[in-house]
Amino acid sequence: MTIRDHSHATDAADLSAGELLELYRRRQLSPVEATEAALGRIEYHNDALNAFCLVDAPLALEAARASEHRWARGEPCGLLDGVPTSIKDLILTRGWPTLRGSRAVDPAQAWEVDAPCTARLRAHGAVLIGKTTTPEFGWKGVTDSPLTGITRNPWDASLTSGGSSGGAAVAVATGMGPLAVGSDGGGSIRIPCGFTGVFGLKPSFGRVPSAPPSPFGTLTQVGPMSRGVADAALMLNVLSEPDPRDWHALPPDRRDYRVGIEDGVRSLRIAYSPTLGYAQVEGEVAEIVHRAAGIFESLGARVEIADPGFASPETTFACHWFAGAANLVRLLEPAQLERCDPGFIELAELGARIPLLEYLSATGERAALGQAMNEFHTHHDLLLTPTLPIPAFRAGLDRPEYHDPEQWIDWSPFSYPFNLTGQPAASVPCGLTSAGLPVGLQIVGPLHDDALVLRACRAFEAACPFPRVSLER
Hints:
single chain; 473 residues; alpha+beta; eleven-stranded mixed β-sheet; 14 helices; 35% helix
């Protein structure tokens, strides 16, 4: 479906959720047409990019027709009525298998439960179109698995999309639906957003109710992924609604995250840390992020170069992450283990060898890191860093071929510290390398101040509109 105004024509698949909703209100576009446009993008591009592991076109069109009837009556049922939306394949979705990227999960079982975020999206009329790809159990920072194969970057299909919400990022980047649900336990929303040039927010821990609990414990948070900040704010309104199944969930604040999003960053105290004090950043990436940080000064913020002052928490994070993998593996039968990604099993074996007292020591280190960041934010409203130290590398690899880190966390040093602290952190596209690859800027806020992060992201987006991938086959 092509939307025409007086000056140009726009494919409905390229519209934001907010634009779709406004066109529905004005009777200039129907949810069926928008859903058909998203499904058309999937049909044309998914074979090459592998964003979706499950597409249910008949069910999506049925939901779109029901939405169309509600809009015709002037009675939309919620904030996202008729908006095509995808769900990461780690998140339960009634009626569809949630295989978690793993051949160890039996698809022939009852799939009768929605996760809280899925239930909220249905209640608000979102048109669920399918499940997006993930590495097995979301264990690493790229998206490939023995079950679903390799997910590729739409800017260059020879390169990785990042992970573990790689399918979700590719879906958003290519117009296979304007909204996607991702999850982030060490960067799994921000890493693929950084590599594919879309927006993603890891909310404060507990902001979005989640069930069942992640095997990786309190590192993981569900969050919105979109092409623009306003859509993510709208989506967060829905995802953050209460659900009693999550005993970690924050008390509902019932706020509208769109309110105040255009208020800018004037007079905010912003710290810019090029390396967090310990990371190595590729030169071109560093230059692009440095220029992006300078934009905030031009917008009236007070920006200074300042590191938070903590040493690399890599071993602290690894202790939590590897133990989570071991905890998951202990629930699998030997026949299931034989079907798993060898890299995931290796990670779990490392986790199984962590002594209890070492794990407890890591929980203490985590608490100290959280306290240090709380104190840091008494002097700085926000923290800016690169999302990643490198652009996307070759697809099918767990790590860049031009150096030899042991695990994915070695090449993604900027994201996981803020899973340990539970702070809100977003990735915004901030430029392209000379090879035409996206670079991301990470914006980190004080614990529970998701609204401030969204506001800063929107200010940057307004000053430096996000580049869009050119879709050519």
